[in-house]
Amino acid sequence: MRQRSHTVLCALFFLSGFVGLCYEICWIRSAGLIFGATTFAVSSVVALFFTGMAMGAQYFGSRSTRYSQPLKVYAFLEIGVGTFALFSRQLLTVCEIPYQLLYPSCFQHSIIISVIRVVLIALVIIPPTFLMGGTLPLFTQFYNESATASSGDLAFLYALNTIGAAAGCLICGFVLLPELGLSTTLLLIGLLAQGGGVLTLLLISRGAFFTGAVMRSGSAAQGYQRQFTDPAERGLLYATIFGTGFCVLSYEILWTRFLALITHNTVYTYTISLLTALTGIAVGSYLVHCRRPSGNATVLLGAVQILSAFFVLVSLLLPTTAWHWAASSESAGVIVVICLALMFIPTLFSGLSFPLLVDCIRHTDFSAGKHVGRVLATNTVGCVAGSMITGFILLPLLGMHATLLVITFVCLALGIMVIAFLSKGVSYRAKALVTLVSLLIWGLLATTTKVRLPADYLAKERDLIDFVEGKSAFISVIKRNGDTKMELDRMWQGQKNTGHQIMAAHLPMLLHPSAKEVLVVGIGAGQTPSRFLYYDITRLDCVDLESSIPDVLKKHFEAAWLSDPRTHVIAEDGNNYLRNIDKKYDLISVEVGQVFRPQASAFYTVEFYRHARQRLAKNGIISQFLPVGFFTEEQLKAVIKTFISEFPNSTLWYNHYAELLLIGSPDRNLSIDTDGVAVLRGNPKVFAELFFGLPGTEEHFLNNPEVLAASFMMAEKGLGNIAAHAPILSDDKPVLEYGTARTTYDPQRFKRLFEEQHESPQQIIAFAGNSAAVLQKITKIQHHYISNGFK
Question: Which CATH superfamily is domain 1-210 in?
């Protein structure tokens, strides 16, 4: 009976970790959809998550001895967490109301809008995380007092809870979200948390667990002698607890940045990296449980910090050739191997650290729950500080390479401090030797490396002209094949020489020549937004997450258009901007490239199109890049089905072998009429620039209306036919984000589909009347596009 009760108890605590991690993943996604996917918005969610945990750990840990039945309080906390999970989406929706009211007047004031986001997110996240923070101290207090427990070993409990979190990360990230969607996942984990809490209460009521108020103090029960009685020693001990949390989260940020240099970031990257970190922590904690240190815990704790600093420094400063095997793959298997190589050993050291820190605190007069609560709270505050200071101060001011040196030195100094000032029974000579050797090794590693982050990885045997470490991506300018190109995280975004991107401005403007107010989402290298200024528009709003892009363009590309009084650059998440702004536009152009990148798929959902439709003026149109090479046929059909559900008057146009233009409107007839032709022929800048041909028909020049019309592929009838049985994509179920992360790049896969489904261009050539000769010419070029353009 005792063994069975112990097993049930362990299963319930495993479930607690599982639910907590699922909850974190879902919250980050939910808050990002509502409040934006900017780096600060996402980091705020993570920071608030940890802040609530720290507050709960401190509060319930300090009161753990006051509860006669700590396990019952733990059960009620789990029920509370589950209740918040069930209603979190509704709570976020309620908080969105004041956000939408304040956003139009505040979005250009980054500090003000950031404070508003933090406050509103905190209202939803702090209460449940506060409850979650109390679960480990309360469970530990019960476990330490209970007759059903075979051991009072915290390392085992911490490992068990963490491996539950790893399981939650794996199942939520790979199964629940892509298969069930966000709302159903939150419902499921809410019910699991509530079920675990109710089951615990039921078992308590039946006497399955010993819940008597034994009230053994942690020190007395375990036979520990008080060692850290001096206030200075106590201060150093808590500084160590804080510092370990600081370094771990700082490492997480550096690893995330580094992964973008050796592989392409997908929705799986975050899940796999988090899974690796949690697994390493769980293994480290379990090692302490299996082989409890027989000597001074502080010596091992200091050694762990020193070795962790060395490993992180060496692994991130390896020659670039050491990672050639990764080959910028998006494969989940490759990402797993990379994460294991980079993260497993340091996170295993982190897993060793937490129980060792608690072991040090046990040499005080705290109870079990109280010392766990204090350690967890202090360590978690360090995590928050590491995330915010590294992400928003060190990286922007110092850059990645210098930040790596600073953080590893802090970790090294932390280990030296522990051994030098907190380790009892170690000779001064040994302490001095450890200090000297550690500093010497770190100095040699830091100064002898020839690798410079991130420059050497951004160059990759190419001519790197310049780079900027942006808020969410590395912006690099390279020289290739005689042209200057811009990349984000080593992915092409545009070039200096005129290319096909200009058609994303020219074609919609010729379909809607009277457009005055224009919005471009995604600046790229500036080719699309700059071309809108060739026309008689009154305002051009350009929205992009990366605020550094305009400065890069001014320095290396044709950027006079940025100084045009009609141009307004807005550093913001385009999805969030369209969701909350109250302005109307005649034309919206969406220039989002690689769809597999995290959050990029949010620009292809029905929610995004619905918000875009609400921002269109009467007879307004929307134009969107379709990077077809990243889609499967089923995914493309789903995108088209979603688009035409909000924009019934839609057309598809050929623009490049790997890129199409999807143009739609709620109420405007999309055809090239006499007004558009007049603009084409009467605007000297437009006519001169379109003196070139698209891939597949380079001999036909686009300043000829017939050639321009030949890029038409199909309208609402054809689009409706190919998407008839496709699903509508939504934010709630991110199937496109997960699907494109597994899709092999291949633009040719659509050649057969377009050969079978293309429509006659007759319906969109209002300028040609009923001329059979003009229609025949256009049709011939159209066939040439489809036959020769997809290569």
Answer: MFS general substrate transporter like domains (1.20.1250.20)
